[in-house]
Amino acid sequence: MFSRNDFSVWSVLKNSIGKELSKIAMPVVFNEPLSFLQRMVEYMEYAHLLQEASSKSDPVERLQYVCAFAVSALASNWDRLGKPFNPLLGETYELERQGYRVICEQVSHHPPISAFHADSEDFIFHGSIHPKLKFWGKSVEIQPKGTVTVEFPKWGEAYTWTNVNCCVHNIIVGKLWIEQYGTMEIVNHVTGLRAVLNFKPAGWFSKDLHRVEGFIMDKNKKKLNFLYGKWTDFIRVTDYPSYEIYYKENAHKFRSANDSKGPPSNSESPSQTPKKVLAKLNSFKVGPFKSQASISEPDDTGPVEPSGSDIPKCDSTYSIDIPNSLTLWEATPRPANAADYYQFTLFAMSLNEMEPGMEKKLCPTDCRLRPDIKKLENGDLDGAAAEKNRLEEQQRDARKARKGKKSMSDWKPRWFCHGTNPHTGHEDWLYTGGYWDRNFGPDPQIF
Ligand code: CLR
């Protein structure tokens, strides 16, 4: 990758305050050589956890592994600060791996919506993501709207959840860093078992950096299990009685760890008070944006800014290891050269691979065939920028042409249709089948 030291995100974004981030033209140097469709497929890195889940005859154990999967799916986001390429309308991506295969399609351009469908002998995993990006000045907040669903045909079960929000900090000064926070509720629609997982904001003293905690409950909300860990690292589970005993003996640890809403009343104030933050923004002359900046100040739900513009460090002295715990998942360490390769995991590094014979059987809309991504991967920054422009213009022209023809004015995705998720009743995009028959033909030509 190219060093981004000479480029400032702020210098690009300051002219785009209030704009939807998907509409801002970002220089290619801020991109990573993957399409968002591939980034979505990174949810699959620990797909073996779904196989594990399906192999358990106890529904509580199944839910534990579904939880581990849901958290593990977010692990690759740690330290990944490049912007994936916006998929073109109709762009696809396929991946066949041991035990499963997955197909993705960009089903809408404005707003950007990406749909995926993975199947295997043991599970089906599908969903659609509509990332909403809000630029708050100091940070960019990302809401991955859309439901994801896991089905175990063997058990006649379906689980759904929505991914938590994500925040990229230090847009103005300091080093960028990523935080994921909020509540994830994983529901088994057949048994009524559910898990409520709390992705904690780093908090004033960064004690809770990347921490995840929550309970598995039966349909009467009785707590059965306690899950804890970090989305960057591991997830463990213990039974509720063991948690209670541990909690009583270590109440002080929990109290401070759970207190992410502000500092204890008798302690010194955090290094960045809202006033100071505003003063800093003012000194950058952001003008009309001031009032919005104040909205993003700490409240009950959003992340609180840890001290200054540094990346907060996790307080390792606060590490809970509760007796009778079972480790459900542990993250694979990044390859040693990850820093030279966009902080990719080994799994991400493999996603552009053209395996022998693939050229012939790949769908012509597959993003492995996108010339701009290819050029960035090969280190040709100017070439990548030129191709990216060309593709975006071509897409705009195609859109205009469709609008001209009244009869066929709307674009119809090829592999997914707009519908209702039968388990949640919410809007979703459902796979219509047929991709793996591989009767593609030469069209559409989107690259
Ligand atoms: C986070 C996990 C969600 C799905 C999702 C949607 C959008 C992604 C986001 C994830 C991770 C961060 C992301 C974002 C789009 C742009 C943003 C890649 C995968 C990057 C870091 C923004 C870079 C631009 C800055 C330099 C301003 O389930």
Automatic annotation (TrEMBL):
Region (Disordered): 290-316, 385-406
Keywords (A to Z) from UniProt: Lipid transport, Lipid-binding, Transport
InterPro entries: OSBP_sf, Oxysterol-bd, Oxysterol-bd_CS
The organism's place on the tree of life at top rank: Eukaryota
Compositionally skewed regions (Basic and acidic residues) per UniProt: 385-398
Pfam families: Oxysterol_BP
Transport keyword on record: yes
Family under the similarity heading: Belongs to the OSBP family.
PANTHER family: OXYSTEROL-BINDING PROTEIN, OXYSTEROL-BINDING PROTEIN-RELATED
Protein name per UniProt: Oxysterol-binding protein
The species this protein was found in: Nesidiocoris tenuis
Lineage of the species this protein comes from: Eukaryota, Metazoa, Ecdysozoa, Arthropoda, Hexapoda
